[in-house]
């Protein structure tokens, strides 16, 4: 693949949440290496009706907070997470093993598209939602899906990248195969057609970050010219690409 209109996009807006980084300025400091993501805490998700908010556990609340942080938008949603609601899934499996029963509500919230679906219900948005889990390539897969939606005619796409440490029961598998040592986070990138960034193949490119979603966010908030998304795939920044502060739209 070479750079072309079909493989390019523009950043329209962004939002993010993680423990210790509740606002845009703290995330910009994080991108400069001046702040670190914390461990404890979860957002209030005050914008969501309480009866629906109570259905979300910590992972879901972190993702929802980022979605609500963007201005009103009815564009398609691409939900990309490596592990999703694994803590809830572990609870369900343990309950099934001990009692032979599981909570239907907990089960409904454990599926991979549940958090995005809960958001569309609460916000009364009838929009296309795609849920993706592609291992260490989840950020790349999310970008590819968003580009496909833009090429298919969408004016913009909300790409949400989110993950959290795996439960302790999976510790033996975490170091080599997952982002279990990463802090919990979520970010939403509102993408639109344009040529500020291009997705390209490049021989010799290797992903050396165990949490490419965070690496992608740092790239979008910084000034680096390239960012590996997977082995052989990278994002390239146009030299004239402007920085987009949250809640300030780059275009219509």
Q: What pattern of helices and strands is seen along the backbone?
A: EHHHEHHHEHEHEHEE
Fourth-level CATH superfamily: Thiolase/Chalcone synthase
How many structural units, i.e. domains? Answer: 1
* Text of the CATH class: Alpha Beta
Assess the beta-strand content as a share of residues. 15-25%
Give unreliable regions as ranges.
1-5, 177-181, 248-252
* Biggest beta sheet summary: 7 strands, mixed
CATH fold descriptor: Peroxisomal Thiolase, Chain A, domain 1
Query: What's the helical proportion of residues?
Result: 25-40%
- What count of helical segments does DSSP give? 9
Q: How would you describe the overall organization of this protein?
A:
The protein has a single domain (5-237), classed as Thiolase/Chalcone synthase (Peroxisomal Thiolase, Chain A, domain 1, 3-Layer(aba) Sandwich). Helix content is 34%, strand content 21%. The chain is built from 9 helices and 7 strands, in the order βαααβαααβαβαβαββ. The chain has helices at residues 24-31, 50-53, 58-69, 86-99, 104-110, 114-123, 138-151, 171-177, 212-221, and strands at 8-17, 77-80, 129-132, 156-163, 185-201, 226-230, 233-237. α4 (86-99) packs antiparallel against α5 (104-110). The protein is globular. The model is unreliable at 1-5, 177-181 and 248-252 (pLDDT under 50).
């Amino acid at each position: 693949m070479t750079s072309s209109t079909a493989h390019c996009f523009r950043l329209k807006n962004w939002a993010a949440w993680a423990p210790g980084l509740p606002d845009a300025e703290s995330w910009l400091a994080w991108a400069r290496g001046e702040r670190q993501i914390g461990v404890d805490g979860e957002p209030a998700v005050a914008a969501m009706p309480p009866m629906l908010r109570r259905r979300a556990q910590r992972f879901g609340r972190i993702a929802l907070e980022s979605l609500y942080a963007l201005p009103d938008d009815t564009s398609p949603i691409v939900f990309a997470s490596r592990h999703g609601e694994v803590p809830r899934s572990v609870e369900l499996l343990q309950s099934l093993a001990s009692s032979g029963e599981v909570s239907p509500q907990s089960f409904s919230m454990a599926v991979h598209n549940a958090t995005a679906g809960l958001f569309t219900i609460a916000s009364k948005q009838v929009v296309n939602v795609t849920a993706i889990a592609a291992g260490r390539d989840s950020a790349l897969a999310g970008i590819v899906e968003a580009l496909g939606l833009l090429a298919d005619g969408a004016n913009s796409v909300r790409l949400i990248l989110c993950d959290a440490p795996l439960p302790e029961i999976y510790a033996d598998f975490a170091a080599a195969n997952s982002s279990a040592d990463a802090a919990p986070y979520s970010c939403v990138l509102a993408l639109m057609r344009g040529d500020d960034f291009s997705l390209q193949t490049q021989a010799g490119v290797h992903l050396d970050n165990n949490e490419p979603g965070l690496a992608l966010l740092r790239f979008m908030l910084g000034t680096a010219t390239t960012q590996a998304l997977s082995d052989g795939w990278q994002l390239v920044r146009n030299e004239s690409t402007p920085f987009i502060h949250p809640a300030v739209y780059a275009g219509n």
